[in-house]
């Protein structure tokens, strides 16, 4: 209940700096009075905060670049497209990827590589990832950007608030702390402090991306309460409540893939029976569609390739594949009906590789969901929560990671951006 | 993200008054320096806050009563056992109940009555409830207590932040705003402002009671993340995350009773199939145990009576009842496994009338839960979340309501307790 930083002068100033930066980042360019109005401070209260953020290079006067650095006095404020960048990385079962986004949220550099990570030890995977990180860091340095944080998306359970992958079954990783293997990539250099490292479940980062980037292009802003479902090899979900990720006591929330669908069904790798993954997981669908998972992977390697194969077959009218996808949609609808009854979200978002299968899984999914959330629907919900398809698709986790990596700057702008201002930087 | 009341002087003072009052209420008696240390303020900063709360009669010097009103200077502080009280009310299918708790959390008055509320219109039910409220208000007035708020527990969906019961199937209420029918009970009188009215789902209030009162008597404090399951006629659940109720976008979260368990099972009143209520709801269990629900109710009227009958039969070794309860436990375990995979709570608490059936439902419930949450268990959770039985049992919702009714005082101590201090009171 206590505000972060408490009610000390220092804490209040830090929060207000963060509010100004976030407001301009989300809604800028904005005039100073518009910023003041949006955060509920007086113009006189906002002026020194804006000046500090301008001096630190986090804000710029809009138009300054165009007019050779002068800007219109009292002109509009925007966040800088130089300065801090968030580094996002993704460890997939079949690929690695890294990207960097600036404070404006634009992707400034991006690399990806196919990689046979399944049952590969963390050491070699992290060495290869570190090389990709160095490539992206060099690329953005040429544009005046420096990394402010690194977030890594992994397909597995991550201990809450830690950098340890507790269990990533499809990588074969258990209790693997990623910090040592990424120490080279996060080390302090050139007078900058060491990079804060975040390790996070990919579905959670996909949901964060949806929250920040899901709107735009004429689409409505995503609601602050939704369940985000995605799939690569497994099925993952993330629960967003009031605009925040619900992480669970240990950080393991969102294991939709192991929600029981048909309790007497086949035994699952988790030890349970009839889990959602047994009906809607990638391997189950490939098998039900008459495609051997191994062959499909060999013929079409790379991220999202197996799912791409399913989509092509379905589009070509392969009835076994179409039926398998319909059945996957039914199972997803049953599991999601449980989630909706428990959580009452405003929307269910299909993201990750599932987005590309929406034409075939949505009808049966929506039918089950409507049937099984009728009490609430009947009571004013008008047909249950909206089901939408993410426009980010398989890019969600990587983009979400890069945005998450900017959090330290957005939460505490001057500590992160101006090491010379504070002796505390070196220890963060 | 913004602190309640913002960072104005007024907002900070209000928050600090609330912190002092909550700290003494939860941990008192405490000396002034101990209060200061616990809330992170200086002694000089705490002194005027304490003085204001003493003047308003919300705090007292411990020992003052015993020494004829003087108290030891600099002695320990406690919350008053006079002054504001929270009024809690419960509308059950078969009963009505009202109680009042003081700032110390002690029940100071309580009345209950059997009532045939099933399919009764709100008007007569609320008139009868108002009479019970008047009875309790008179009783506590004689002890120097005055109501500071009223919260009403109902077995149904309540619109978030409103006083409208959207759907209470077992009462037969739809879109029923309870405020007009309780206007007499909440009206301003004797110079006091009108009582703030809260209407809330009974399972949510049961969970709040568990959060505040579940510890003590040598039991550990409840964790801040748990799923609370209860039953009267229906099955309800409440989800507590970081010590806060998860309400859902519309306020309808926690509908565990309509989570699909066996998707091809019998049609449920909600329109779905194979919902948990079809296997673990009171009527389903009575029927499976060979007891006609109607006859059981007629033979043993009153709150919790049907469940009491089941417990007696099971204790007497009635094999049909024991088997029905085991099967209900299995179904509960399957539905809760879904909830645990999604939410990763630290505990599952059996509350309400279910608490009394724990000896017969727990073994099968725990077996399913352990089987179906194995990924997480295997990954450091040491056997999944703890399953506990509430010691509050069927009293939970009523006690939770009374505590919820004190929230306005605890959130904003002086506005609520000292109408003369502020012109804003009349409009709250």
Automatic annotation (TrEMBL), chains A, B:
InterPro entries attached to this UniProt entry: ATPase_NBD, ROK, WH-like_DNA-bd_sf, WH_DNA-bd_sf
Q: Which Gene3D superfamilies is this protein grouped with?
A: 3.30.420.40, Winged helix-like DNA-binding domain superfamily/Winged helix DNA-binding domain
Any one Pfam family here would be: ROK
Q: Which family does it belong to?
A: Belongs to the ROK (NagC/XylR) family.
Q: What is this protein called?
A: ROK family protein
Q: Which organism is it from?
A: Streptomyces mooreae
């Amino acid at each position: 209940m206590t505000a972060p930083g408490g009610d000390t002068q220092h804490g209040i100033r830090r929060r207000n700096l963060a509010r100004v930066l976030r407001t301009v980042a989300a809604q800028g360019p904005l005039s100073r009075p518009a910023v003041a109005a949006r955060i509920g401070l007086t113009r006189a209260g906002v002026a020194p905060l804006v000046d500090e953020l301008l001096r630190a290079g986090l804000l710029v006067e809009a138009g300054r670049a165009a007019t050779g650095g002068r800007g219109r006095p009292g002109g509009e404020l925007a966040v800088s497209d130089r300065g801090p960048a968030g580094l996002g990385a993704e460890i997939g079962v079949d690929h690695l990827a890294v990207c960097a986004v600036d404070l404006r949220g634009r992707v400034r550099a991006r690399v990806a590589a196919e990689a046979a990570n399944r049952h590969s030890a963390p050491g070699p995977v992290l060495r290869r990832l570190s090389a990709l990180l160095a490539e992206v860091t060099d690329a953005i340095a040429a544009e005046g950007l420096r990394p402010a944080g690194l977030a890594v998306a992994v397909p597995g359970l991550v201990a809450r608030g830690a950098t340890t992958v507790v269990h990533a079954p499809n990588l074969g990783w258990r209790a693997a702390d990623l910090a040592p293997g990424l120490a080279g990539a996060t080390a302090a250099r050139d007078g900058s402090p060491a990079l804060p490292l975040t390790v996070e479940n990919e579905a959670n980062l996909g949901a964060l991306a949806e929250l920040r980037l899901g709107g735009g292009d004429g689409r409505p802003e995503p609601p602050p309460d939704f369940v985000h479902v995605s799939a690569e090899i497994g099925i993952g979900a993330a629960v967003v409540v009031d605009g925040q990720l619900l992480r669970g006591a240990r950080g393991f929330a969102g294991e939709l893939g192991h929600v029981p669908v048909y309790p007497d069904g086949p035994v699952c790798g988790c030890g349970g029976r009839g889990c959602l993954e047994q009906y809607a997981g990638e391997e189950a669908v490939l098998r039900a569609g008459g495609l051997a998972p191994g062959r499909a992977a060999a013929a079409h390697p790379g991220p999202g390739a197996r799912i791409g194969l399913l989509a092509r077959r379905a589009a070509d009218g392969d009835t076994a594949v179409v039926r398998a996808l319909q059945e996957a949609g039914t199972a997803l609808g049953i599991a999601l009906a449980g989630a909706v009854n428990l959580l009452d979200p405003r929307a269910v978002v299909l993201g990750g590789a599932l987005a590309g299968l929406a034409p075939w899984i949505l009808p049966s999914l929506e039918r089950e969901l409507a049937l099984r959330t009728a009490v609430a629907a009947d009571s004013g919900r008008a047909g249950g929560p909206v089901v939408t398809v993410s426009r980010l698709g398989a890019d969600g986790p990587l983009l979400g990671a890069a945005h998450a990596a900017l959090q330290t700057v957005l939460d505490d702008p001057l500590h992160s951006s101006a090491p010379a201002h504070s002796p505390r930087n070196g220890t963060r």
